[in-house]
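User: Could you check the structure of this?
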Amino acid sequence: MDTQLKKGLIEYYVLANLNYGDSYGYEIVRTVSSHLPITESTLYPILKRLETQGKVKTYSDEHNGRLRKYYKIQPNGLESIRNFLESWEKVEAIHDYIKRSVEE
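Assistant: Sure, the predicted structure tokens are below.
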């Protein structure tokens, strides 16, 4: 997959993942990597940016005697997903146009 396209999709994939339920960094990497291979060093700046934008919120909870940082989607994050889905219709139209150009 094209690097720029991948970069654009990761943020929404992470938000969608969090919409299924709160999660922590390592678990998010495992889930997202099933479709878009990423590393923790790629994920954490994205999570930080989403937090700064108010799309996710963090909290800590104890797990096996250690604090684990969890991420929770916020209404702003859900709205971001909805906007992405509306925009995707335009992307599909562009995709169809490009596809037709090589099929003719």
